[in-house]
Every structure is written in structure tokens, then in C-alpha cells.
Amino acid sequence: MHDTYQELEKTRSYEVIVEQFVKLIASGQLKPGEQLPPERTLATKFSISRTILREAFRVLESMGLIESRIGSGRYIRTTDPGALKTLDLREGQEHLALYLSFLEARKYIEMGTVELAALRATPEDLERIRQTVDVELTETNFIKVDTAYHLALSMGAHNSVLEQIMGSQLFTIYFTGIWGSHTPSQRWNEIRSEHRAIFAAIKANDPEEAKKMMLTHLHNVRDNILHLVR
């Protein structure tokens, strides 16, 4: 094991572990294809719980820096150390980790939402969704229209809890407030096309296709966010 792994204060959490791994990869001390030590070994070395270590691994995997191989362990992925050296390791890291957790939750919430909408949406619901997808996205209206679209989906699901979740302040902050304003203009047409594909599946009463299109949309959202911080 690398001697450069440093024991962490017990009050620190996964963000510090993420930072240390990024530094080790950027410096070349951890090389592409190299296998990481077992969880138990690393948790002991860092003096942290395996739960916190796994959270750090989840973020590192989301950032594309490590990969898990079933039955084999975790490995450093091929990456450009030079690009990592320019990364601000602390600025935005906590927000990124929280957003990735939030996005993971969105996957389950919104795939369920569009499944129900495909089964339950009324003509009035379909018209409400259609009005949001017909709007051309711009810098000034993107956040408002995007939020309205996902809220309209939840209304089409006819589940009051889902509607309250989608309309909550938490969703507004992490769905649009932190990263929504950073969406590049070249993504606007793509997002609009993705929204239309989901809407088409709902209109066709095809829950499986609606879930598939929503998953594609959320994967693209995630990729865009990770591209911003690389």
C-alpha cells in the first residue's frame, strides 16, 4: 500500500478521502489500472468507517476516477493526471458530492414518476407537459421552463407525495440552483429533445419507454455536471 495514504481525523468525512485520492492520481502515485487495497485495509489506514469509505468511492466512481470490477475489486481508471492538477480540490467538492447523491435519488423518483404518468396522465396533464416542451430553451428561461417540465410530469403521475417532492425547496435548490445555471447553451436543444422523447412515451401510454428515456436524460445531466468539474 502507498505510504502516502494519510490517517484522517475522525471528524472528517468522505470529501477529504476524495481529495486525497485525486491528489494521488494527479501526482501519478496512483496509476491507471492499479488495484486499490481492500476496503478493510483502507478503512483502518484512514481510521474511518467502511460506510464513509464507500461514499467516497461512490463519488470517485461518479467522477470517472475509479471503477469497480465484480469479484475483483476497485481499480484506478485511465485518466489524464495533467487535467486533474488544475482541479480545485475543495471548491465545490461538497456541493458536487451532495448533488450526485441528489441525482441518484432523482433517478428513482423520476423514473417512477414518468411510469405513473404514462399510465395515469389525462388530456389536461398531457397539454400541461406539452406546453413546457414546446418552449425554446434560452439562458433567461432555462431554469424556469425545466423546473416547470418536471413538475408537470409529477402532476401527471397523480400522486400528491411525488408532486410535493418535485415542488419542494430542496428540489429547487439542488435541481436548478446549484448546477442548472451552469448548463451550457449547446445542451439546451438536447435537453428539449430528451424532454420530448419522454413526453412522447407518456402520450403513447408506454411506461417502459418513458422510464428508458428518463434514465437517458438523467445520465446526460450527470455527464454534463461531471464535465463541468473536470
Report what the structure shows:
The protein is mainly alpha-helical and 230 residues long. It has two domains: 14-85, Winged helix-like DNA-binding domain superfamily/Winged helix DNA-binding domain (Arc Repressor Mutant, subunit A), CATH 1.10.10.10; 93-229, Up-down Bundle (Four Helix Bundle (Hemerythrin (Met), subunit A)). It is 66% helix and 3% strand. The protein is built from eleven helices and two strands; from the N terminus they run αααββαααααααα. The chain has helices at residues 14-26, 39-46, 50-62, 81-85, 93-120, 123-133, 142-157, 160-166, 169-177, 186-203, 207-229, and strands spanning 66-69, 73-76. A two-stranded antiparallel ribbon has the order 1-2. A hairpin with a 3-residue loop joins strand 1 and strand 2 (73-76). Helix 6 packs antiparallel against helix 7 (142-157), helix 6 runs antiparallel to helix 10 and helix 10 runs antiparallel to helix 11 (207-229). The longest helix is centred in the middle third of the chain and has 28 residues, at 93-120. The two termini are 27 Å apart. Residues 7-12 and 85-91 have low confidence and may be disordered.
